[in-house]
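Propose amino acids for all 215 sites.
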C-alpha cells in the first residue's frame, strides 16, 4: 500500500513517519481530507458525477495546503492532487490544462529520491500525463520524456509487479499511437487520441491487472 492511498490507514505504518511530527489537529485534517478526496474520486470513477470530482480536488487541495515545502507528506499530497486534476483534464477534454497535473507530478517526483518506495508509481503517472499531452500537442519532447520515465520504471520494478505491467501497457500504447499517426498521415486522416490512450492513469493499471489474470 502506498502513501497516496490512505494516510489514516494503519497498513501505512511501515511507510509513513510517525504522525506525532504534526500537530494533532493538522494530522486529523490531513487524514480526513485525504480520505475524503480518495473516496470521492473513486465514486466519480463509478458514477461519472462531475461534482464528486470537483469535491475530490478541493479536498486534495486542502490536504496539500496543510503540507508546506519541507513537509514529510507533501509528495503524497501533490501526487493525489495531480491525479485528480489529470482525471479532470481528461474528463472535460481540456488537454491544454495538462500542464497543471504534469507540474504537480513532477514536483512530487522531485521530492522522492531514487530509493523512495513510491518513486516508480510517480514516474508512471507522470509518464502517462506526458503521453497524453504529447498526443494533443504532437510534442516529441513530451513523448521522449515519457519513454525515458517508463524505461526507468521497467528497470527498477519486478517483471510481475503491478507497476511493471502498467508501464508495459503505457509503452505499447505509445507505440500504437506513433504507428497510428503514421497511418493517419498516409491516409490524410486524423485518428482521435482517445482511441489510442486510456482515459486516466488508473485505466492503465486496470488493464495491467486484467493482463495478469488472463491465460
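Proposal:
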Amino acid at each position: 500500500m502506498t502513501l497516496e492511498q490512505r494516510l489514516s490507514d494503519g497498513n501505512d505504518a511501515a511507510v509513513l513517519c510517525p504522525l506525532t511530527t504534526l500537530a494533532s489537529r493538522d494530522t486529523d485534517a490531513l487524514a480526513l481530507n485525504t480520505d475524503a478526496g480518495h473516496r470521492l474520486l473513486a465514486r466519480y470513477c463509478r458514477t461519472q458525477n462531475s461534482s464528486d470530482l470537483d469535491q475530490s480536488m478541493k479536498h486534495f487541495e486542502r490536504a496539500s495546503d496543510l503540507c508546506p515545502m519541507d513537509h514529510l507528506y507533501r509528495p503524497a499530497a501533490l501526487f493525489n492532487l495531480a491525479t485528480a486534476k489529470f482525471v479532470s483534464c481528461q474528463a472535460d477534454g481540456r488537454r491544454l490544462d495538462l500542464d497543471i497535473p504534469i507540474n504537480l507530478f513532477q514536483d512530487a517526483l522531485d521530492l522522492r529520491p531514487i530509493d523512495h518506495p513510491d518513486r516508480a508509481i510517480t514516474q508512471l503517472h507522470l509518464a502517462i500525463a506526458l503521453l497524453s499531452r504529447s498526443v494533443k500537442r504532437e510534442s516529441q519532447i513530451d513523448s521522449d520524456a515519457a519513454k525515458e520515465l517508463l524505461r526507468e520504471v521497467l528497470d527498477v520494478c519486478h517483471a510481475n509487479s503491478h507497476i511493471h505491467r502498467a508501464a508495459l501497457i503505457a509503452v505499447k500504447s505509445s507505440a500504437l499511437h506513433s504507428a497510428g499517426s503514421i497511418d493517419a498521415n498516409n491516409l490524410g486522416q486524423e485518428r482521435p487520441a482517445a482511441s489510442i490512450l486510456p482515459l486516466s492513469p488508473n485505466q492503465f493499471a486496470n488493464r495491467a491487472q486484467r493482463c495478469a489474470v488472463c491465460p
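Residues 162-187 form the longest helix (26 residues). The two ends are 26 Å apart (CA to CA).
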